[in-house]
Design goal:
alpha/beta, Quinone Oxidoreductase, Chain A, domain 1, Rossmann fold, 2 domains, single chain, 18 strands, seven-stranded mixed beta sheet
Length: 347
């Protein structure tokens, strides 16, 4: 089969690799219909996250179950399924508590020795704990299929950020970051009842989506100017709930300083850079809470799925470029150069 591999910074290839096969009775093999490129994939692409030459990549996909191991009972051949960005057994203490990303037997797609989502098929460990079945009719609805793909990562991650920030009815929310996760956090904040949503971003195509998703205000400034603009919009107080969806020192510093006393920050931006940007003294003095981390999206899919199916949530506009599998290297280049927000991969 064909699959995307990474060999060095900026060296992405689509190559022939062995077909996945059932190795354990809890496995399934899924034939991929839709995958995508994540902003976090760019850290490997740019050489800022170590990868072995020839390692697979991609952690967001949905497809059709092709084969199952003897102990798999939750999915069967022919089912349309979505896979969260980590596999999990569904039965360990962490999974039962909803923290599937800490599963004792879990892992990331594209880890050394495992298939990545940017390929024709994937061997899925712990299929019963990992995969979520979707209505078969969705396979013939292009928009819905694309929206459902967001459940594998960005929609659940935006939801996790909004929960961590304590978004609630009537709250003022600020979203720092105009990538796909930040935009999905706008959707999530609207769903949770935020009265005012201030999106920080400088790219009009992205801020237009933010407004479509429910942002009431857009702040294009960065750093101290962004803080001043948010303070002006909020009567000098800042926001009750702040989402940090970038992961840089500057973005975290901005998040801290636009948070209202007694408010909270939900952080889901993968940390990178020289420091955290946290002013612990300011956070202590102003009673600011910090929650977030790797989003346990598998735990959120059952809650979010009905809203995607009925159109209450439609994150599909975050996918603004489509390539086939052979075009994945071009998709990486476009996202790295910020000419694409999020690239959809069709098989």
């Amino acid at each position: 089969m064909r699959a995307t591999t990474i060999h060095a910074p900026y060296d992405m290839r689509v190559e022939d690799v062995p077909e996945p096969v059932i190795q354990l009775p809890t496995d399934a093999v899924v034939r991929v219909l839709r995958a995508c490129i994540c902003g976090s994939d760019l850290w490997a692409y740019r050489g800022e996250a170590a990868r072995q030459a020839g390692q697979r990549i991609g952690h967001e996909f949905l497809g059709i179950v092709e084969e199952t191991g003897g102990e798999v009972s939750g999915v069967r051949r022919g089912d349309l399924v979505v896979a969260p960005f980590m596999w999990s057994d569904g039965v360990c203490d962490y999974c039962r508590e909803g923290l599937t990303t800490s599963c004792e037997h879990g892992g990331f797609w594209g880890s050394a020795g495992y298939d990545g989502g940017q390929g024709e098929a994937v061997r899925v460990p712990f299929a019963d704990g990992t995969l979520v079945t979707l209505p078969s009719a969705a396979a013939s609805d292009e928009r819905l299929l694309t929206a459902l793909l967001s459940l594998s990562d960005v929609l659940g991650t935006g939801h996790h950020a909004a929960l961590g920030a304590g978004v609630r009815p009537g709250a003022t929310t600020v979203v720092v970051g105009d990538g796909a996760v930040g935009l999905c956090a706008v959707l999530a904040a609207r769903r949770l009842g935020a009265e005012r949503i201030i999106a920080l971003g400088r790219h009009q195509a992205r801020t237009d989506i933010a407004r479509r998703f429910g942002a009431t205000d857009v702040v294009a400034e960065r750093g101290e100017e962004a803080v001043a603009a948010v303070r002006e919009l909020t009567g000098g107080q800042g926001a009750h709930a702040v989402v940090e969806a970038v992961g840089t020192e500057q973005s975290m510093r901005t998040a801290v300083h636009v948070t209202r006393d007694g408010g909270a920050i939900g952080f889901v931006g993968v940390p990178h850079g020289s420091g955290t940007g946290l002013d612990l003294s300011a956070m202590f003095d102003r009673n600011i809470a910090l929650r977030g981390g790797v989003a346990p999206v598998r735990a959120y899919i059952p809650e979010l799925l009905p809203d995607v199916l009925d159109g209450t949530l439609d994150p599909s506009p975050v996918f603004d470029m489509t390539v086939d599998l052979e075009g994945v290297p071009d998709g990486y280049k476009a996202m790295d150069e910020r000419t694409a927000l999020k690239v959809l991969v069709t098989n």
